[in-house]
Model the fold of this input.
Amino acid sequence: MAEEIKLDISPMYEGERIRKGDLWVELGGPKADGFELSLATPMDQIEDGKVTVVGPDLGETAEGTTMPFGMVFKVGGEKIEKDLESIIERRNHALLSYISGLMHLNQRYDIWMRIGTNLKKKGVTSWTQIYKPVIDLYKAEMPFIEKMEITIYTDPAEVKKQLANAMAVYAARDERAKGLHDEDVDVFYGCTLCQAFAPTSACVVTPDRPSLCGAITWFDGRAAAKVDPEGPQFPIEKGTAIDAIAGEYEAINQMAEQRSGGEYSVMKLYTFFDAPHTSCGCFETIGFYMPEVDGIGIADRDFKGAAPNGLPFSTMAGQTGGGKQVVGFLGMGVLYYFSPKFLQADGGWDRIVWMSKGLKERVKAGIPEAMFPKIATEADATDIESLKKFLLKVDHPVVNGVSRPVDGAKITEGWKFEDIDDDMKEKVIAFIEATGGDIDTEAVKAKLGMSEGQFMQVVEALQADGVLE
Ligand code: SF4
Done:
């Protein structure tokens, strides 16, 4: 049994970063499996205060190691219901970060933790010495938890097995959330849990606009606000929408202004462009606007290459996070891709031009059938030029202009040239001569790499020059 060690635990350590030079062990993250799971469990099946380690313990781990890691928290109490599982699980982000020498990022299957060498210097040799105080911390912060038992997994095969179980639990939670819509409820929920990392961040969780971290559904928000009214999740009376298509509500604007300390005063739920939702940094996926094609791409954390805009996920995440409204980038949760209101003000799926392949497959059921083959992945397009060719070939809505499905309003004009140079004119003249004036749209796209609208722009310029009648 490892001796008890007094750790430095305080909210002031929340947000502490552990850099490479101070790193003892890295857990999960981009290079290893990692997960966290809380399970509401009957009281008689919990051995209160117990911590079990399955696999090598911390003291057996060499400095600089990256390893798979999983943690399962069994929680019980009279007030504990299934909907509180996610809330307790998500509180890891704050409470584990209270420990000096421990950094916790992300959520669910995406956790990324670092243990600093300062804990080694303190004499820590076992996960038990870290997680026993964590149990006390949870009980102090969430008094409705009456019993708690933790199992830590470090054995790689066991982490894989338990991760698969956890994925099934997350999927069941998400399935439940998909059946409910914004029209069905009078209350949305706000969440400011991530303000320690992103001080102006204020999330809104609605049935049709699930959390960007993917860890909190509307049901979870409701359960948390009920059991812990002073906690980071709180109700927002929905009221009447100012703009139902963009998802603008007076109550959300007021909340945003108040909780962001006046940083912004308008926050709309279903748009990418005009006063979008803030992005704290915990987002499961990132959306990015590409003006060259007037469309939006989306990458997930597993995508390791550069997107067609030339940027990898990590660079875009750096530009997007911090709790600001960043026009051109938006953090989004995976569940949002199944929402009927997904970016509906901007054309929804008709505006999506590129997705990382793994993500596209994962959310296939949420993508309208007609749009699925029109969205490129890294297998189809790796830069703007190859993306343009793909979009022309599949006749993507952005090419000739998007009429948004929600109300039929035409919201983009389609591709247009800003300047028409002599080279373009010569190509079009040669094309017209070769076809004998019998213009076929497919041939224009394939041979000239232009949309119909762009071709007509050049024809009109040639007419203005007096070259064509
Ligand atoms: S990302 Fe938003 S919803 Fe998720 S825990 Fe952080 S503040 Fe809450």
Remarks:
- The longest helix spans residues 156-178.
- The chain has 14 helices and 17 strands.
